[in-house]
Design brief:
Helix content is 39%, strand content 14%. The protein is an alpha/beta fold. It has a domain of 208 residues.
């Protein structure tokens, strides 16, 4: 079950962090009785592809795998019970020090501050770090049957939620049998208290959000520092956690650098500890920077540039381009952000700019 707090009395629940959720009152945040979750379970049992789970269905069309398939594999592990709240995807309050070009004020306090600075709200403001913290639903969740807990954000290492939840699991004797995962952008190290709790867990997987390298990373995940991020990743490697996974949000902005980013990760992983498993995965961006936002002219140009037989990531790109029918709304989106931040996407993402010029969609 995915839980996201909006204000003191309202939360959003979903079957997982990738699915479309539904708001509800705090007293309805219950895995067994929530009407929305019950409907989705009934649809899945009947073989119906719920529309709220479209992200996974789309990814499976491209690659055969998704968060849904990996979750099914997890639940098939020997000794795993099949009922009750086994997995908790916990969304921390929207506290974050990054203003990623694929994000918004909904998940980032830095984004919200920028919106307020320019008196321009690019997305409706429906929650803040303060309103989310006012919600105490965390104290009412029964953790007795938990096998796995996953933290996303926001930026989980800037929140006290992971420490609070892992401490509760430790106090009831469940932490040592719990698999823990959390996302981080790499800009800040986890606290000593959080690291100590993580080292008590059954296993730990850290998911690093990396969408490019060098100056291109700094443009995409503005205003983070690439040297700081790489140094922190190396420090995390020394903690000997079970798995380190690079997750790349794949959109029109970084299709030209996706392979370079993957190669960087594989090179880094080759120097990692043998006790740690390294992997990388992709998620498709939705919104103005999605691959399917490309116009027909840009789509044709990009098809000429990418060969789906060269790598798995190129196959993702080509498959996504096949369904593109946009109006190149990504251009105005990047221009709007550049104006705020005194940046220039043409210099930051030169291969995308060259493709756009060749397609005749920009000058």
């Amino acid at each position: 079950m995915y839980v996201e707090r909006r204000d003191a009395e309202t939360a959003v629940v979903a079957p997982c962090c990738a699915a479309q959720g539904q708001p509800c009152s705090n007293d309805q945040v219950n895995f067994d009785t929530n009407p929305f979750l019950l409907r989705l379970r009934q649809e899945n049992l009947a073989g119906i592809a719920s529309k709220e789970c479209a992200v996974c269905w789309q990814q499976e069309l491209h690659t055969g795998r998704s968060l849904r398939t990996s979750s099914l594999e997890f639940y098939k592990q020997p000794g795993t019970q099949r009922s009750g709240l086994l997995n908790l995807d916990w969304n921390v309050e929207p506290i974050c020090n990054a203003k990623c070009i694929i994000c918004s004020n909904y998940h980032s306090s830095a984004w919200l501050a920028e919106d307020q600075k320019f008196s321009e709200v690019l997305f409706p403001i429906s929650r803040s770090a303060a309103t989310a913290r006012a919600n105490d639903i965390i104290d009412n969740i029964n953790f007795d049957s938990i096998y796995r807990v996953y933290f996303n954000g926001g930026e989980p290492v800037l929140s006290q939620d992971p420490v609070k939840i892992l401490t509760k699991l430790d106090q009831i004797g469940k932490l040592e049998s719990t698999t823990v995962g959390f996302n981080m952008n790499g800009s800040c190290m986890p606290s000593a208290e959080l690291i100590s709790l993580l080292q008590k867990a059954r296993s730990v997987t850290v998911y690093f959000s990396i969408d490019g390298v060098g100056s291109q990373f700094e443009y995409i995940r503005y205003p983070l520092s690439w040297p700081t991020v790489t140094e922190n990743i190396k420090k995390i490697m020394q903690l000997n956690f079970n798995s380190l996974i690079m997750t790349t949000a794949l959109g029109i902005h970084n299709i030209h650098i996706a392979q370079q980013t993957e190669d960087w990760w594989l090179e880094l992983a080759s120097h990692g500890p043998s006790c740690t498993e390294f992997a990388n995965t992709y998620q498709l961006v939705v919104g103005p920077l999605s691959i399917d936002s490309a116009s027909e002219r840009l789509k044709q140009q990009l098809h000429q540039e990418f060969d789906s037989t060269k790598s798995s990531v190129n196959q993702w790109i080509v498959n996504s381009l096949n369904g593109a029918s946009g109006t190149d709304q990504w251009i105005s989106w990047l221009q709007r952000l550049d104006q705020r931040r005194s940046l220039d996407w043409r210099q930051a993402l030169p291969k995308l700019y060259q493709a756009a010029v060749a397609a005749g969609v920009v000058k």
